[in-house]
UniProtKB/TrEMBL annotation:
Its EC number is 1.2.1.8. It comes from the Bacteria. This is 2-hydroxymuconic semialdehyde dehydrogenase. Residues 19-473 form the Aldehyde dehydrogenase domain. GO terms for molecular function: betaine-aldehyde dehydrogenase (NAD+) activity. It is an enzyme of class 1 (oxidoreductase). The keyword Oxidoreductase applies.
Length: 477
């Protein structure tokens, strides 16, 4: 029996859908429904857009000074810190994310708000006195209404990565969280009301991709569409936004290469290889799902990598000892386990892992080798705890293998040779390269992907350029 309800938050009111329809919200660890959420229809999306539009056209938010907006956003961040356990509990319950990881995500979500609150205050424009005697300056005014659509793998963190720069730069926003994970984002919307945000600045629209998300992207009252999700949906979002020429920012799928050279610090490389593919049960767009190990250390590395994967404590996400839990939904469990059905048939070998035998929606940390380079396990984004390993001989071979994919979100490399670190980084076709680490971010730097991994970059000034209408003013003096 469900006990909680997550409504839409429109105009600072938490409301049911106009149709009264709701959908079930699951706890994938217990395999029970723990809540219900409002099922957004086209008319609810229209309502949210009308609210955001009015708040932008007539409300105080876009007209506030930069420090005023910074103060309002820091207040929301303060409330999130006070309620961090509650936010993390919702993500852990809703998608079986180990609680310590969910707490870490809340910290990063708070940092998203604080960073963009300060960034918009401190980067308001540039001034250039011209040698011709003119004086020119740039202005970064808000773009308007932003539709933000987020996935279920980092329910709170991915949503805040979009909301924070959007509202910081004076826009009003409608966030549509994934239908699989509406809980933490709805609480965030409640906190924005508590923080005193004017009505319509942050609306939360719950519901499925269609009609809730697709109504947002198609509406010409929406000025920007920022989307994180799969490459297939990203293409549909871009097509829909193009009908009214709304600029899009797309952060899509990945098939990250992780290259370990013979001269790597072995302890560090094993630690990060495990983090890169098994953290969040592998449900990370940036996962190191293709691992390439140089032949000189292959046997030793693989022995240690397999042992470390098998040592992960699996179980209840609220058990503090647990580092690895079930997948986020039954639907996703079916997808990931489907990739393990024909591994041997394709000539592959399962070194460790496989589908849980106790009926949980869980795939154990899985390491595969010997798969052909055209197998679906090697080429496609599995988005689960499944690592496909290959051996390589030379640096050139590693670069070729790493780049031989339609994706290009990120790559990792492990080496103690500084020249090689720089050389290989510059040859990798990826939006982010991590050298001797993984998942560390500085919010000033660009974030995004190449090819099927996305369009555009966000972060620091890249977010400023996307979420504003930059203007040049030239004066003769
Ligand atoms: P998804 O594409 O199925 O859904 C993402 C969001 O889009 C959801 O909110 C969904 O309701 C909505 N949606 C679906 N159809 C829509 C439509 N026609 N119009 C508008 N909205 C629509 O993705 P998912 O399964 O939730 O997330 C997993 C994917 O996200 C993976 O491919 C992963 O790599 C990717 N991802 C990328 C990044 C990144 O930063 N590049 C980060 C996290 C996840």
């Amino acid at each position: 029996m469900s006990t909680q309800f997550f409504g839409h938050i429109i105009d600072n009111e938490e409301v049911e859908s106009i149709s009264g329809e709701r959908f079930d919200v699951w706890n994938p660890w217990t395999q029970e429904v723990f809540a219900q959420a409002a099922e957004g229809g086209a008319e609810d999306a229209e309502r949210a857009i009308a609210s955001a539009r009015k708040a932008f056209d007539e409300g105080p938010w876009p007209r506030m000074t930069h420090p005023e907006r910074a103060a309002a956003i820091h207040k929301l961040a303060d409330l999130m810190e006070e309620r961090a356990d509650e936010l993390a509990t919702l993500d852990s319950t809703n998608m079986a994310k180990p609680f310590a990881q969910a707490k870490h995500d809340v910290g990063r979500s708070v940092a998203n708000f604080r960073f963009f609150a300060d960034h918009q205050r401190d980067h308001t424009g540039e001034v250039y006195p011209m040698p011709s005697g003119h004086h020119t300056y740039s202005e970064f005014g808000p773009a308007g209404v932003v539709a933000a659509i987020s996935p279920w793998n980092f329910p709170l963190m991915m949503a805040t990565w979009k909301i924070a720069p959007a509202i910081a730069w004076g826009n009003t926003c409608i966030i549509k969280p994934s239908e699989d994970t509406p809980a933490s984002v709805t609480l965030l919307g409640r906190l924005a009301v508590e923080a005193g945000f004017p009505p319509g600045v942050l609306n939360v629209l719950n519901g499925h991709g269609a009609p809730a998300g697709s109504t947002l992207t198609a509406d010409d009252r929406v000025d920007r569409v920022t989307f994180t999700g799969s490459s297939v949906t990203g293409k549909a979002v871009m097509a829909s936004a193009s009908t009214h020429l709304a600029p899009v920012s797309l952060e899509l799928g990945g098939k990250g290469a992780n290259i370990v050279f013979d001269d790597a610090d072995m302890d560090n490389a094993v630690y990060w290889a495990v983090e890169a593919i098994f953290r969040n049960s592998g449900q990370i767009c940036l996962a190191g799902s293709r691992l390439y190990v140089q032949s000189g250390i292959y046997d030793e590395f693989m022995e240690r990598f397999v042992a470390a994967a098998e040592a992960l404590t699996i179980g209840d996400p609220f058990d503090p000892e647990v580092a690895f839990s079930s997948l986020a939904s039954k639907k996703h469990f079916d997808k990931v386990s489907g990739y393990l059905e024909d591994v041997e048939e394709q000539g592959g070998t399962v070194l460790t892992g496989g589908v849980d035998e106790e009926g949980r929606w869980l795939v154990r940390p899985t390491i595969l080798t010997d798969l052909p380079l055209d197998s679906r396990q090697y080429c496609e984004e599995i988005f689960g705890p499944v690592c496909v390993v290959n051996r390589f001989e030379t640096e050139a071979e590693a670069i070729h293998l790493a780049n031989d994919t339609r994706y290009g979100l990120n790559a990792m490399l492990f080496t103690e040779n500084l020249s090689r670190a720089h050389r290989v980084s510059s040859h990798l076709r990826a939006g982010t390269v991590w050298v001797n680490c993984f998942f560390i971010r500085d919010l000033r730097t660009p974030f995004g992907g190449v090819g099927d991994s996305g369009v555009g970059r966000e972060g620091g000034n890249f977010s400023r350029e996307f979420f504003t209408e930059p203007k040049a003013v030239v004066m003769q003096i």
